[in-house]
Batch of 2 targets.
Target 1
Amino acid sequence: MERIVLGDVEIIRVLEYQGPFAPAAAIVPALGEPAWTGGDAALAPEHYDPASGAYIGALQTWVVRSGGRTVLVDTGVGAGRERPSTPMFHRREGRLPELLAAAGVRPEEVDVVVNTHLHADHVGWNTKEENGSWVPTFPNAVYFLPAADRAFFDPAAGHAARSTAGLDPRRWAEWDLVFGDSVAPVLAAGQAKEWSGSLRIDSALVLEETPGHTPGSSVLRVESGGERAVFVGDLMHSPVQLAHPSCNSCFCLDPAQAAASRLRVLERAAAEGELVIPAHFAGAGAARVRRQGAGFAADWVR
Ligand SMILES: [Zn+2]
């Protein structure tokens, strides 16, 4: 799905990368190979490579044109970032601005940036390097940041959480880098708006907290002309989690909460006919979902 129209809202997919990320067993640790290759969940070759056992995913940004405004949903990994604990992202040279230009979007035109959460691959192009410092890539945009993620990841505010989180200190060190080069400059420029609970952006777009993957993980719901969609961020990394909605990615910080949020959002999507648009699905990228057995099945939108 490269472009879809829902009522008065236009959605454009800007794909930065599609291919192997990591072993599938590492991405969704609770699931073995049969979940990826068996029966209705046969995910090769678009989402799984049986030869190598790799999870196939995507890095992408979604452009939403609504009410005369241009909204970006997540901003990828960025360019030239120090991410020593994440080889795939370390000093990666992402090309989002060029890809946006090809899609007809200039940086000055972007009115709203939504970060569904504050992980490295969702905030990278929030900023760009200019004269040796990081500045907002989108000079006229309001950046919506989940307040719970700012509280958790901001080195100036999150240290209380560190003592109880029990996480590898290298992850904290890298999150500090992410916050420093991709979030702090937006705050310093006065372009950030923190929100919690839910936030209506316009008559068609509403942000809603769905915590678990991170404390402030959120979804963006779209409703226009009786048609609906939901950008689910990292609530799922692969369609294997449609068939197995209780199974988390290895990146979910609160497993029980993440599973509950995923199930709640998928149940609503199935009941209300929302088009589900995740951050990292390869292949078609978006799907309508329906109940099947203990999980859900996808009808891909191509
Ligand atoms: Zn992600």
Target 2
Amino acid sequence: MADRTGQAGQAAQAERVEQARRTPVDRVALDEAVRFTSDLIRIDTTNRGGGEGVERPAAEYVGERLAEAGLEPLLLEKAPGRTNVVARIAGTDPSAPALLVHGHLDVVPADPAEWSVDPFSGEIRDGVVWGRGAVDMKDSDAMVLAVVRAWARAGARPRRDVVLAFTADEEDTAQYGSGHLVAAHPDLFEGCTESLGESGAFTFHPGDGRRLYPVAAGERGTAWLTLTARGRAGHGSKISHANAVTRLSSAVTRVGEHAWPVRLTPTVRAALTELAALYGLPLPDLDAEDPGELAAGVDGLLERLGPAAALIAPTVRNSANPTMLNAGYKINVIPGSATAQVDGRVLPGSEAEFTATLDRLTGDDVDWEYAHHEIPLQAPVASPAFDVLREALLHFDPAAHVVPYCMSGGTDAKQFSRLGITHYGYMPLRLPEGFDYQAMFHGVDERVPVDALHFGTHVLDRALRAL
Ligand SMILES: [Zn+2]
């Protein structure tokens, strides 16, 4: 910190840490974080995709809670019912850049037949809040609301302007949500340089007693592809050297079996370095020029890291998994074309390599195009912001090991990045051992412990006021 920001920066940082110590988070705030989570779960905001979903009642609920805290929330829609909420809290330092905090209001579908409780009951049982959205991410929306309301009660203000965005349609294409806000209302995000949102700062238990807290500082890009093979249509009994099904099958096999080279982004490099040190393991040469040596070193380290490697393993390489095939209509007719879908995920800095590799793997007889394309993101790990995020977690869990990580999927941050906003995945939750957080996402019996919400509210308050 000191060598990056100098003496003055260090003093200012110490002052902010001191201020953060006088926490405005009181019993009311902790109770509200729980109650708001439960209330928001009860408002069914299921996003079925293709434009089907209604966030308005949840947006109105959020707007009312913000207005009660003296804020002036704007409700914004691209289509009726697909409502977003944006509000700005004035910081104490008008010269400081603004900070964006965003959370989505929609949830993925839940089939009540599969659940132990009604997924839209928001039931609180044995210290746990149950329901769709309990971790993805009405819990986060509720904690943000609880924190800013605590600020209003205590007369506390953050240093930077804090812009709050509660979005629609994150679970589909974001066209009614963050995509719309960025396209139609960029002025609302004036001055924002950094954002906090899903998903990070939760407890990851590698099973050895350690508590890791992955903080997202990057996202892989989404590259959903359609492969189309063309050939000569004809009778199934004839010899064919231009069979679209055969051509497609060959291309799909090459794509699916491709051994993608290890490509280390700054975030993944930092994560490997920190985890190796934490576990007392030798760090392989991460600058090895020979691809085989690099892969052997990185894969070897991941193997020795055991369960902790799960945080990193999906993000040391690009990936492209064939997921759907479509060809033909009758067994004795050779079709003139055949198509396949491939779920590709691309690391920051690897897009050109990804497209060149796809060109080569699909070959001359098969074309490919994007069915859906979202850019990858990269945020700096050696930054004052990351230091603050780390400190806030350590303050409330001194045994925490904060590890930067790159998300293998994507969030609303991709849309907001179009405004030049750098994103960190940071919605803190302290979770007990045995609680499979990742399985909760879009899973059955999604739930969140009350204690986790209390912890998250404290950490979020501290981080937001110190940033
Ligand atoms: Zn989510």
